[in-house]
Structure formats: structure tokens, C-alpha cells
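Input chain follows. Return C-alpha cells only.
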Amino acid sequence: MSHKPPFLPPALGLLVMLAIFSLHFIKPLALLFPYPWNFIGLLPIALGAVLNLIADRELQRAGASVEFGNVQGPLVERGVYRLSRNPMYLGQLMIAAGLAIWVGTLSSWVVLPVFVFALHRLFIRPEEKRLLERHGPSYTAYCQRVRRWL
């Protein structure tokens, strides 16, 4: 039986962004990054977006699937996948952290641990299970060499 989440990872990323902005405007709590220091948040936003593009390109170049739940093609261990088993999720997390810095308030940071938990539970664990089923010992060896995040 296949595990199907109620939505795809980009949709979760959009929900997280909405939650960050909503908490900022509804219940801002303490100001952590006042203007103009809040613009530092643009750096992780840009780096996260670039990381997602590079990771997606690396999968496509190798002929591997980029579609959630559809594990096809070779196990990609080169490029950014030498540094992180989940560079796209890391990129999404960097974008979310950048937004939390950019809006500048403490309340927006509440979303990030929930985001990491949801990514792990809804997407990473099922993907790792499918990759292990498809690639067996080579995936196990890859997991021993490369960390999940960084």
C-alpha cells in the first residue's frame, strides 16, 4: 500500500509561507530583526531557491524522477546530493527561515520546527523507504555517507 500525503511538498512550502506571514501579522510577538537588518533574510531565500534549482537539475540530468512518490531512474549521489540527501527540502527550509528573518518577528519562527516535522513525517520517511526498496544496499551505503540535511 502506497503512502500518499494529502498534498505535495511545494504545497506544504506555500502553507508554511502563509503561516509565517499570518503569525507575523496576527501575533507578531518580539521583533528580532528590525529594519534594515531584516533584509538579511533575502540571502537564505535566494540560496534556498538556487539550491532547489540545482538539485532539480541534477535529478533531471541523471534521469531520475522528480515527481513525489514516483521513484524512477538511478540513485543520484553527485552534485548537491553529495552534501545532502534532501537538498530540495533543505532549500525549502532555507526559504522559510529567510522569510522568518525578513518579517522579523519571533512568532514566525514557531512555524519552522513544525515544518521540519511535517517534511520528515509526510515526505522524507516515505521517500527513504521507497528508495531503500528500489536501490537496496547502495542506498544504505549512501545514507551512511551523506547526512539527511547537511
